[in-house]
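Q: What residues go here?
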């Protein structure tokens, strides 16, 4: 994935070290309840459609932009499906860069366009059923988001809280 000018500037200062990024992903279902998946041009893995949120950009604008840039689709975000993050969403890139992502997952509605890969970031695109999705080569983070999208019941996802403040000390 080509780095945005912002990420490029930050990398000039921190090198390959850990960078935390806000990102978005689109869940687009067709009328047969198949989910749109895309193939990463660099890794060959199937991934979610989306990307990083630019500075001063809203997540909803970012998802509209990413769908346009990567597939030529004009979409409208219809609801927030969840917010994902944590150790599963850390990515170690081939060039040595490490990123930890917080991902806002949106359900989107297609307004116009037929999905066509940009052949820069995305090499292939297709709609899949849950059963077909289970057989695709993808990261654990991607699989977690797709699984949640297929079972979405209207309740936005967030991970179970595991951190607790320390107990007050006895006086």
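A:
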């Amino acid at each position: 994935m080509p780095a945005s000018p912002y990420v490029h500037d930050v990398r000039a200062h921190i090198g390959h070290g850990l960078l935390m990024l806000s990102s978005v992903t689109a869940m687009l279902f067709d009328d047969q309840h198949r989910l749109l998946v895309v193939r990463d041009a660099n890794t060959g893995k199937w991934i979610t459609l989306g990307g990083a949120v630019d500075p001063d950009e809203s997540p909803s604008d970012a998802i509209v932009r990413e769908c346009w840039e990567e597939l030529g689709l004009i979409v409208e975000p219809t609801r927030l499906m969840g917010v994902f993050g944590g150790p599963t969403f850390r990515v170690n890139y081939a060039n040595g860069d490490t990123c930890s992502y917080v991902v806002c997952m949106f359900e989107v509605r297609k307004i116009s366009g037929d999905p066509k890969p940009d052949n820069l970031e995305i090499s292939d695109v297709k709609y899949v059923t849950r059963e077909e999705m289970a057989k695709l080569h993808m990261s654990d983070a991607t699989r977690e988001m797709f699984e949640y999208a297929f079972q979405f019941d209207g309740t936005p996802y967030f991970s179970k809280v595991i951190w607790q403040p320390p107990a007050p000390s006895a006086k």
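A: Context that may help when evaluating the design: The CA atoms of residues 25 and 105 lie 5 Å apart. The helical segments are 5-14, 59-71, 130-134, 140-151.
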